[in-house]
Structures are given as C-alpha cells and as structure tokens.
Amino acid sequence: MSAVFLGVRHHSPACARLVERTIAQLRPVQVLVEGPSEMNGRLDELLLGHELPVAVFSHYRDEQRAATSWAPLCDYSPEWVALRAGRAAGAEVRFIDLPAWHPAFAERANRYADAEARYEEATERLCRHFAVDSSDALWDRLFEVEPDDGLAERLDAYFALVRGDAEADAGDRARESYMAAWVRAAVDAAGDRPVLVVTGGFHQPALRALTGPGERGGAAGNDADEWERGADGWPRVPAPPDAATAGSFLVPYSFRQLDAFTGYQSGMPSPGYYQRVWEAGPEAAADGLLRAVVERLRGRKFPVSTAGLIAARSLAQGLTTLRGHPRPARIDVLDGLAGALITDDLDHPLPWTGRGTLTAGAHPVVVEMVAACGGDRIGRLHPGTPAPPLVHDVAARLAGLALDGGPQATYRLDLTDATDLERSRVLHRLRVLGIPGQVRTAGPTHGVDPEFTERWESRPVVGREAALVEAGAYGATLAEAAAVALTGRTRDAAREADRLAGALFDAVLCGMDGFSDQLLGELASRVRESSMPGPLGEVLATALGLWRHDRVFGMARGPLLGTVIDGATERLLWLLEGARGSSGVDFSRLRAVVAVRDAVLHAPELLSVTRETAAGIARRIADDPEAPVELRGAAFGLHRSLGQASGAAGDPAEAVRTVARAGTDALGDWLAGLFALARDEVTGAVGDDGDGAGGGESLIDVLDGLVCALPDDAFLSGLPALRQAFTFFPPRERDRIAARLLERRGVRGSSRSLLRTTADPLLIGRARALEESVSRLLARYELEATP
Length: 787
Description:
Elements: E1 3-8, H1 13-26, E2 30-36, H2 43-46, E3 54-61, E4 66-73, H3 78-88, E5 92-97, H4 120-130, H5 135-144, H6 151-163, H7 170-190, E6 195-200, H8 204-211, E7 245-252, H9 255-258, H10 271-280, H11 282-299, H12 306-322, H13 330-341, H14 364-374, H15 389-400, E8 410-414, H16 418-432, E9 438-442, E10 453-458, H17 464-471, H18 478-492, H19 500-510, H20 516-527, H21 533-549, H22 562-578, H23 587-602, H24 611-623, H25 629-641, H26 652-660, H27 664-683, H28 699-708, H29 712-726, H30 731-744, H31 752-755, H32 761-780
Parallel strand pairs: 1-6, 2-5, 2-6
Antiparallel strand pairs: 3-4, 3-7, 8-10, 9-10
C-alpha cells in the first residue's frame, strides 16, 4: 500500500482535527512527521506529559557559524496530534526531517516557518477572488470555519495551487529529498499496511512526486537515494562535523512567542483564540473572544457599556452572514468589536488585515483585542525532562554562593571581598547570557569607576527555565558559556563597533580567568579591523583605564590588555589621519583622540608606535586643510600634549588667529578640539599673571580681542560654536577665565556676573538679533519713534 500524504498548515485546528480523524480511520502502521529526526530516539521524552506549548530547541556551533532553531508544538499543532494520536493507535511514529544543525536550516530560525513568501502571487489571487485582506483570513474562510467534510480534498487542491511551479530553494530541496527517503523506507517496511505522512503543505506536492510509482530520484538533481540507510533500514540521521558542537533539548514555550503579532514566523496568529477553536469550536471561540476583550478593556478602565457589547456581538454576527461564513471567523469577531468600540480615526490599518508585529501607537482597543486573541498561556516541562549540563551547573553555583534566595531577594556585594567578587561574576555571567531573574541596580559602570559595591535584586520572571536551556548552546558550565557568548559578541561587533567596549568591560565583570586569551585575542583582531574612530576610542579608553587603575578585577598592569591597547592606538592614528571634512563637532572622535593621548603618555611600553611618531601624525593632521576642523584643533592639542610644541608652529595664539580667518563657526569647532585635548597646556597660566601658554600674550587675551572685533552678525552666528567649545572647561576654570576678562576691562566685581545670566545666552543673542532687524526695518520706512 502506498503512503497517504496529509499536507497541513502548522498550528491549524482544522488540520489537527483532520490528522486525528485520519489516524483513527486509517490505523496506519507508520506515522511520519515533519520534525527533527535527531529526536527520534527521544520521543518518549517529548511525550512525557508536558503542558504545551513546548518547543524542540536545537543549536549548532563551529568555527564558521553558529545557529539556533526552534520547532514549536502546541495542543492544536498537526505534528503534535500526529505524534500523540499515532502512538495511541499503536503506530510507529518518527520524525523525518533533517537535523536542525544541517546547512539546509542555515538561514531559518523556525523549522515550521511558512513558505508563503514563495507563493505570494497565488495567495494574492485567492485573496482577491474571495474578497479577503490577508492569507490568514483566506485560510479561515476556506478551512477553519467550513465543515470538516471534504477538508482533505480542499487542502490538497489549495497546496497544489499555491505551490504550483514555485522553485524551492536549495535548503527545501535537500529537506524534501531526505523526507522522501524516509517515506520510501517506511513503505518498503510496511508492505500492504498503510503509512501516513504529515508535513507542511508546501512540501506535500514535492514528496508525492518524489515517492510516486517509478520515482527513485529527486527533483532538480537531488537523488533521494543519496541518503544512506542504516542497519535498521531507515535513513541515517546525519551527524554534525567532529569539530562542531550541536544538540537539541526541550524548552517551555508561550502563546506570546507563537503569536504572529509579536513576530512569529509560522502558522496561525492569535494562538489563544485558536486554542479555544480547538477545544470548543468556532462559535464558542467567538463568544469567548468577545467576553475576553470586554473584560480586558474594563480592567484597564476603558468604558465598555452593555449596549456596546451587544452592538459588537450583533455586528460580528452580521458580518459572518454577510461574508457567507457558515460559522464565525476570527476576523468577523475582530471587525465587529472594532466597529462597535472604536469611534476614533485610526492612524494605521487594523493589524489583522495583514501579517506582522503590532505597530507602535496602535489604538488601545486594538492593543487589547490583539492581546486577548494571543492569550497568556506558558508551557511547562515535565519534571523528568532532561536538561543540558549548564542548567545543573547554574543551580549548583547559585546554591554554593547563597544566591538562590528566591524571587524577592536582594544582594549587596562588596567587590573588594573575594567571595562577593565571585558572586558578582556569577550574576554577571547570567546577565551576559540573557538569563532573566537578577537585575543589577547599582555598581561600577566602566573600568575606572571608583564604585566598589554592587546591588542586585531578584525578580519573578517568565521564561527563565527556557532561557537557561537555550543558553546551554554556549557551553556546559557557566564560565564556558559566558566566555563563548562574549567571544561571539566581540566577533559580531566588527559590524557594530560601538559594542566592543561594552563586551570588554562585560568580560572583566564576568572574570576573565580561563578564557581571557581567546576573548582578548578576538577583541584585538576586531579593533584592528574597526573603521569607526568613536567606538574604537571607547575600547581604548576602557582597556587603558583598566590597565592603569583597576584594583578590583585584577587587570591593572597585567599583560592581557596590552595587545588591545596597542592595536587600538595604532588603528586610531591611521583612521584619524585619513579623516576628511565634516560639519559640526564629533565628540566621540574627540574622545578617541584623548584616548590616544593617554595611551602614548601613560602606556608607552605597550605601544609599537613611538611618541615621536604619534606627534608627527598629529602635526600632519593639524596642518591638513581637508581634515575636519575640530579634529585639526584636537591634533594641534595632541601635538602640544606630547611635548612637541616649539616656535611659531606650536603657538596656539597664532593658530587661533589663522583659524579665525575661516569664520567664527570654524573657530568654535577648532577650539572645541583644542580644549578637549590640551586645555591645561594652552590656558594653564590664565588668571595667574596673564602670561599664558602662548608666550607674551595668553590665548584667552587673543580670543577676547578677536571676539570683540567681530561684527554683530558674525558674533551671533558663531556664538553656539564658541559656547560649545568652552563647555570643556569645568566651573572653576570658567570662573578664572571670567575673572581674567573683567581684569582686562578694569572692571571690579565677581566673575559670576559673567557666568550667570537671567536667560539662556543663545536666547538672548537671538532676541538681540531680532531687535536689530526690527530697528533696521523701522528705519527703512522712517518709522522710528520721535525722541
């Protein structure tokens, strides 16, 4: 007897009922299900008695790639019903799809992701024909609300139409070839007894073609017989490469994760609604949804009258009849509720008219309707379910360090105490792995933060168990898993350079013993590839601060950070010399120049770049007319900071006069760069004896003269840039500058009178410009007031 194929939509109550009826009527000897074949030896574990939804979580990692995927199952998943009902009927049940680590899943995080994008044209034609807005509404119209009679035939016709001549990608072709090999092996073993094959509808036409009479080869050049059979007659399950790490475990899942409105890629949206359809039918689901939405709205103090509820019910019934639905569909109920309860104009289309996540700013009634449809069910694994080694290691570590105090515990840790430091490292390792439950509310935020205590709070969360199982993909112990996760973050940060500094400090917080060489080697490699001076400067500042000042985490003067500091300094000098003009001040780039200065001055023994070489590069940048203005000022300051200022070439007063010829905006930007790097060097004598760093005349005296000579229009135009430059001075130094300006004018009084105004100086400047403009306009038309 040949195989019986059931093409299904994942997480469809109608398809689940069809699978259950077919097994009861057909009594197959074999039930083959689309699913991870590496779990065939563990089906007893899958059928232990979990509270669904659950998922098979699979992971893979080698030197080239890392991948994770999920195969979710809920009560009304056809695959789950096939497993459960097949076992109950005495059939042999097997998964027949490739393992999740296989390259066929390289770009797929969800095994059961719909292939609708590949047959979008066919579904659009059907949507137009049946006058519906989305593929979900089309599915409900054709299958979920229609009688079960003839369902299998309608599904066959539907999937044959939407698959049509669509070209499967290489991954799907490999999967279909492998599944076909399982089907033929089952038919060979079954003899005259029936075999039932339950797969996604997209694959059903191809599997029929691959396993039909006389078909021993695959489509598009894929030979189904390439899959070697084992001694038991079944296709072998491909094993991962020897150097790779791979595995599969069960994890709890939730309706929120299954819901298309939160980004799920497959199957039916609104899992809470379809759970009611599965349990009680469309009519009861419609009534339940109406009640749930009204209860949620009233619970959030949104007024819903009894009349409004009656109107929503009546409108839903009317839409059901108008649309020719034999039973209410989800969209009938939602449209009825929206029509009765929403009286405002909507800024966005109703979300159930398409697929995708709920948009920001959605109407509160719409938000509650979507939430009521989604449901809040969370799966729970049977206590006997095996877990990866990491779960047990974490439990032992938390217990051994007295960190298992429950969901309301609070921990205050003294980082100078060895035991508390180890407790901090364990909590940080959980944090970088994304394990919820503990939140740090206080503690050091960077490598030279003088804070030596941390405060952590335990909070009740949902999903901690699943997160721990999923984190087991990184390693068997907490230290190993955190190291692998941080190394992966560092590798990915080559594309997001602003994450490198955070990854470095996280590694320090986690304790770098045992994995620092690998992580720092990866970090050193990434800094030499970075093309963004600002984020690279953060890495250098973080590494240098730890190397110079750390007394808590054991990194001070250690050799581990040397390669990072050297590589970042050399790379930054190269990037800065190649930078070209841009408007405004790039503060992150200025901080990068500061980091270079500090590295050259305070860690010369770590660098392959000499002080003289760095000064020469700074001199070239300062003299380059195509370099950004603020970078030229910073390079001038760097040159002086390195002790290379001599003669006219190092005179800030003369440099200021030269830059001022380009305009006050350019002057302000140049000064911002200068003050970021060498504020003390160029203004250190200001307010003492008037003999500033420029020789006989201080820089402040020069600036005062230049600003006083500006026309009003030029002064007002350049005022924002000039004010921005002087923000680099702390209050005490600004006070000294103000005193110097009063002294130059022979004015007695407090310097604070120049520093404190009754309003924002920029606002005062704009008001002054407006007054002068009005005065000129009045003068033009001889409308001035008579004295």
